[in-house]
Known about the structure:
474 residues; alpha+beta; 26% strand; 8 helices; 17% helix; 2,3-Dihydroxybiphenyl 1,2-Dioxygenase, domain 1; binds fe (ii) ion
Amino acid sequence: MAKSTVNAPPTAADVIQFVDRDLDLFEGINDGEEHHLAGGESLPPIEPLTKAWDVAYIRFSVPDLDLYERWVTDFGLKIIYKDDQVIYSRGLQGDGFCHVAHKGPAKFLGFAMMMRDEKDLRVLQENIEGCSTVHKIPGIEGKLCGGSRVSFIDPVCNLLIEAVHGRSIDELPPTRDRVEYNYGSKENYRRPANKLQDTSGNRAADGSNTVHPGPPDVLKIGHVVLSIPVGPHHKMMAFMMETFGLLPSDSAYFESPKSTEGHSVNPGMFDMLQKAGPSPIYPGTFAEGEATYACFFRCDRGEVPTDHHTFFILSLMDKKQAPVGGDINPQLSHVSFEVSNLDDVWRGHMQLKTKAEFKDERYEIAWGVGRHVLGSHIYDYWHDPYGHVHEHMSDGDRMTRSFGQRIHKMSGLGPNGHNQWGPTVRDSGIRNLDGPAGASFYEDFDHDTQQSLVDRNLDNVSELIERIRDTNGR
Length: 474
Ligand SMILES: [Fe+2]
């Protein structure tokens, strides 16, 4: 394994603890070594079935659609259809609705990948067990955005995974003018004189001054993150790479049992990963002979730039995320949506914070605002009213196939979570991104709702899943 770059290591005193149940675990990049395997030839030697272009949408079912309508609106999504059974929402850009909430038990149902090549749908139909036939998207979903689709239940996590092609919607204009920033002291890097800054539309020509900035401009869905029990997490990584051609951008591994000592990480994590590994996926895909803990994946668009990660998988060992009497199930860690800029991240933060504080909405900060190291994006994570974490993010890295991949040791997390900047571990409050049981109000839900949220068994939503998967629509 070639090591093309090695960053200057920090001192031992700089190597800091990491905290289980935190996204920080893989932000705590290591003892300073950052192995960048540059070039497309460093990527896994996989001939995938297809190459997904992006993520298209995410599906939930929720008991209270009125409550959830307020959530998606406050989050900054635009509702394009609502009746007493479902809410479809979109961003300003994208190929169609990017967020679906069906009426039903509280549950994360699954997600859809966007395919650029229609024949990829046929390939999935022919190669994935239980896959539907290729069909025009029926019913209201087809009316909203058109397109074709296949769907299946994935063999690792038991999620509804869909693949869509040919959807389209018109782009919407931003609600605010492009924000310009002063940068440094050079005159040509500064905003024009006599032009007042207005990031919130508070200086409208009609004299209205709303004071409250309102929801941010959500552009599109950005990425889906799953937290998966140790062992199956490797299987799901392999499944997503083999099925959708995803490429590893950054992966991280525990390098020794000692790396867990004195920290609040589950002490069994290293041993569990060792038992599950060493990364049985492909030689050279990750750190050879090591136990991969987490990996960020991007879409393979060749030399067309794409987001640093569209999909992300991390290991889960939090018993709280298990159904009563059962084993830990795979969870939605979070779903992320790109907003226009830094101001919109903060606008979203203030919108959700003020609605939680002054309108008693069941919104809860999970982590933010900060800027990550891996991916570089500015982030802000919030629990929705059922505990599923939604992220606003902006200004992430983009890369092409030839970037290759980077591999990190997991030996440290700083008091700042190895953010470029942002809240410290202590300041961050809840910050549990393992799954919906991380929300403080999870304990207030009745038994059935709690079970439904953390159990990947689809029995209580089987009728809903059948309806979604009906190739004729009903
Ligand atoms: Fe994220």
